[in-house]
Amino acid sequence: MARVIGCVTTSHVPAIGRAIERGLQEEPYWKPFFDGFKPVHRWLAQAKPDVVVVIYNDHGLNFFLDKLPTFAIGAAPEYHSADEGWNIPTVLPFPGDPALSWHIINSVVADDFDVTTCQGEMVVDHAVCNPMALLWPGGRPWPVKIVPVEVNTVQFPLPSAARCFHLGEAVGRAVASYPEDLRVLVLGTGGLSHQLDGERAGFINKEFDREFMASLTADPEWATRYSTVELVEKTGSQGVELMLWLAARAALGTGGGSGDDAVRVREVAATYHIPISNTAAGMMLLEPAA
Ligand code: DHB
Ligand code: FE
User: Fold this and answer.
1) Catalytic annotation on 126?
2) Candidates 103, 126, 166, 273; catalytic one
């Protein structure tokens, strides 16, 4: 049977892609951020995932404001990187796993999630490419297949944090019921607190980010008490992307409980670094507790 072996959550700031291209990993501005991924590389070398389910938000590249699904799942054999407007070099295409994609789609639809299925072309932006390049520097070729799970965090109305959490749980159940012996990593991208424009441009809320990160191990449903408007107030209009961390954490399983009853996870690595660009850049690697 397939198994979720862990979950990585990370910011996906476009400038990361440019820094990688220019080889700036050792520059003082970037070093603390990139160094945070070293324990993740060691863990990946041991854990050897076969597939990555990437829970992310498209930024107007594949979907635009005129037609914007709340949830979309890719079922294509390949996903091309085609970021627009951010001046990031494209990376090699990501191989897909259509059979696993269709299994997850069927399973979450049976669980009452109305997802848009993308079996044709589904191009991916910095929210997929940068986290993948942080996990597998070089990426030539990518050593894993991906299943993209896209969530609208861009244009209201957004799905609630609770809904994102339940989607993550449904994805976790879907993986656990897949008959092939696959090792699956869940990757949640976005956040943490940031606002790119408007009066509060540059807004960062370190206290909330820290509390949110701690909640993912101690009390995973903590963030579901907030409405999306409250999350925008607390974290900025793009900080609301942290709901994708929440969905990824939920895919590790919670046993239906919260607080002391939640399924235990172990924090293997975590970093929090202010700022990268205008954004609080964080990363966590969690695995099921033995
Ligand atoms: C930035 C952060 C994002 O999450 C994004 O999608 C685009 C830009 C930034 O901090 O520059
Ligand atoms: Fe973003």
Assistant:
1) yes
2) 126
pTM assigned to the model: 0.97
Convert the pLDDT of each residue in 88-123 to its tens digit.
Answer: 888 999 999 999 999 999 999 999 999 999 999 999
Determine the Cα–Cα distance for residues 256 and 165; give it in Å rounded to an integer: 11
H/E element holding 146?
A: strand 145-151
Task: List, in sequence order, the alpha helices (H) in 126-261.
Answer: 126-135, 161-176, 206-218, 228-235, 243-251
Measured in Å, residue 190 CA sits from the centre of ligand 2 at 5
4-59 pLDDT tens trace: 999 999 999 999 999 999 999 999 999 999 999 999 999 999 999 999 999 999 99
Distance CA 158, CA 140 (A): 35
Q: Which ligand is nearest to the CA of 278?
A: 1
Ligand 1 atom 3 nearest Cα = 13
Per DSSP, 27 falls in state S
Taking CA atoms, 220 is separated from 151, 214, 248, in Å, by 19, 9, 11
The span from the CA of 12 to the CA of 61, in Å, is 15
Radius of gyration (C-alpha) of the chain in whole angstroms = 17
Q: What is the 8-class DSSP label of residue 189?
A: E
